Give the backbone structure.
Amino acid sequence: MGAGPGDADLVTLRAARLLASADVVVHDRLVGAGVLDLLRPAALRIDVGKTPGTSSSQDDINELLIELSGEYDTVIRLKGGDPFVFGRGGEEAIALARAGVEVHVVPGLSSAFAAPLLAGIPVTHRGTSHGVCVVTATTEMGASTNFERLANPDITLVILMGVSRRQQIVDQLRRGGLEAGTPVAVVQSAASAHQRVVRGYLEGLAAFEVAAPAVIVVGAVAALDIGADVLVRDLVSSS
Ligand code: SAH
């Protein structure tokens, strides 16, 4: 189940209904605290996220889920955002299905789309960006994504798990042909009381004072702030 990007009122009605009836919830670190308040007080809560580096191994989590499914009627595996967007939800669902467990998947609002929006940035915008590419900077095996191949001024890049790899991202995008003056924005802790947005240009991205969890937006739309009246007015008058 996807828990959405943070605030509890961004979970789906289906998620809220199921959370209110679950026996057990196995959750990650990025699940907003308010979302867990939707559980029955008697529900068992198991945190398998903790801090980076100390989290449970994927095999341990799979095993735990299989075990719990044998003991309880409704076990929810709750993940930040959408469970199938860099959430390893697919792997867990497959492991459970192989073990004969009945699995239902509940979508969630991914930070890939919600974080830019909450910062006033439309990931696509007619005449400015005709597509969006969502990518992680850190692949599963510790290798890094090749950003040189993703340099394309016509589309928006939304980068997850990229804060610590910013210099590499900038170098590769520049080598791929993106201009130093391409707008970028970093949206940190979106949909929480700690949300921060830092804007600038590709050449300065590595020096932004930002921390994870954050989504990096690269492309012309990163200069927009649809929430700010002055820019909405400018946009309207120029269209
Ligand atoms: N399944 C999640 C993504 C998991 S990967 C989803 O769909 O949102 C974890 C990465 O997601 C973080 O490193 C960060 O890049 C991004 N992220 C998750 N929640 C976020 C939030 N509230 N604000 C900004 N970025 C977030």
